[in-house]
Design brief:
mainly alpha, about 70% helix
Amino acid sequence: MKKMIKVFWSIAAVASLSLFLGACSPEVGSKEWCEDMKGKNKADWSANEATDFAKHCLL
């Protein structure tokens, strides 16, 4: 029983941390997001990021 409680709290902590860190990134297509992408190495961009950048920041 104690092991299950420990696992539950571990999962809850990871989920909370994920939500906290996910809330820090700017919305895709916003001015802040475009600036962040301009500063990011283009070799590190995903295909979706490149498409979104072209759609929201160039056109």
